[in-house]
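> agent: user asked for a holo structure of the chain below bound to zinc ion. Plan: (1) validate sequence alphabet, (2) canonicalize SMILES, (3) run complex prediction with ligand conditioning, (4) return tokens. Step 1... ok. Step 2... ok. Step 3 dispatched.
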Amino acid sequence: MNTSAPDTGENVPPLEGGLVVTQIPIYTLNGVGSGAIPLTVGCQSMRVRCPSCKGEVETSLLTAPTRKTHLCAMTLYICCCWPFVCLPYFINYCKSVQHYCPNCGHFIGSYSF
Ligand SMILES: [Zn+2]
């Protein structure tokens, strides 16, 4: 008597997931990986797609005063605009602004006055 057990072969049906990628029309940074050209950014926080984590993020800003910021302050000082001397240090427009991804900290681009 030969009772052969039914062979359970690997009969797995191929899973074909209908992957639909929807494209959101926002700023797409140059391609993938390194070598991406930094996007032209302004002095305000802006909405971009991070090339590193691929997330749609609002850039976080890191500002630093530049020589021109001091120059602005000095000009105001010379023009006797005393109360406004420190103004250039508070306005992003007069400073160098660096945009970073708040998720992964990837450098997005920089703006300078
Ligand atoms: Zn990121």
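> agent: step 4 complete. Summary for user: The two ends are 92 Å apart (CA to CA). The pocket of zinc ion is lined by residues 50, 52-53, 55, 101, 103-104, 106 (CB under 6 Å).
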